[in-house]
Amino acid sequence: MLKRLMTAWEHALMRRDTNRRVWPFEWGLEHLGLSAQQDAPEQVLQAFVDQAVASSDAFYQPPHQTDFIYRDGQLTFPSPIQSAYPENNVAYGQFFPAASTRRAVIVLPQWNAQSDSHVGLCRLLNYVGIAALRLTMPYHEHRRPAHLERADYMIGPNLGRTIQACRQAVQETRLAATWLQQQGYRALGLIGTSIGSCIAFLTFAHDERFQVGVFNHASSFFADVVWQGLTTQHVRQSLQQHISLEQLRRYWSLISPQTFVPRLQGTTRQSLMIWARYDLSFPPYLTHLFFDELRRWNVPFDTATLPCGHYTTGVTPFKYMDGFLIARYFRKHLR
């Protein structure tokens, strides 16, 4: 009975957004610095992905950045990835200082987050003595081009642009960590929700400065979440007319947490994986595939289960349960 209730509730919350648009499928090679006039774009993209996975340290490494601007609680800096959209080429962060001068957490919100999303979590972290820096994801809020109603360029049927956006988010998160270190913070943590969870894990796997990671709605394969998830069925509608799930999984392996689990073998850093029992957007079986892969590589992690779904995590009482789990974990392990 609870499962039926949650399923109906998730569908009802999903239907509140009436501006979903089915964009055309595109290979998007030009967003990766490749020629868009290729006779076999699938082969060009696969070769690029294979090379980038093999050299992911370089792929996700941002350039040296010194021109941070901080004023009245707002941090801005040029994005290390310059996309085709000027609005998207400046990174933004809202900083919430706390009594502690040593501990800070970077907060990465969900897909299509509004400007007030996760502000309550930042203040909760402040309450337990931890500073918080909430980043604006690519193509979100004031980074969204004027012709878009949603952050469709962050996740969409343009394969190359989706890869570029995720790479951009990872590099910006790493630069934000550099800024925090420049302010004197030595213990750094990372919390991401939904797509933010994916970006957080990619960052965590490539940057050992983060001592603690919390992954809110953790999952395995980027492609499978888009293909199977309730939230992204309009994206699948375009994709499935041109490629299979198996192909998409290969193309987007570069932005899948599952790909980089082996990098954490032997780590002593702490991580918490939060999942929702009735999640229709991040199906639980994909989450458990991820857990199996972590165990296979002997990666230590903790788990927590929410008795709700994906959308319902953001409503009372589940949002308070989620916030409590996150704040308690950082308070205990971020030292």
In short:
The protein has 335 residues and is of the alpha/beta class. It is 38% helix and 16% strand. The longest helix is centred in the middle third of the chain and has 24 residues.
What would you note in describing this structure?
With 335 residues, the chain is an alpha/beta fold. It is 38% helix and 16% strand. The protein is built from eleven helices and nine strands. The chain has a nine-stranded mixed sheet, sandwiched between helices. Strand 6 (187-193), helix 6 and strand 7 (210-216) form a beta-alpha-beta unit. The radius of gyration is 19 Å and the shape is globular.
Gross morphology is: globular
Into which percent range does the helicity of residues fall?
A: 25-40%
Strand order of the largest sheet: 1-2-3-5-4-6-7-8-9
Biggest sheet, in brief? 9 strands, mixed
What amount of the residues lies in strands?
15-25%
Radius of gyration in whole Å, from Cα? 19 Å
Structural class: alpha/beta
Helix and strand run: HHHEEEEHEHEHEHHHEHEH
Provide a count of the helices: 11
Count of distinct strands: 9
Which residues sit in consecutive blocks of at least 5 with pLDDT less than 50?
Answer: none
Mean pLDDT: 96
**End-to-end C-alpha gap:** 42 Å
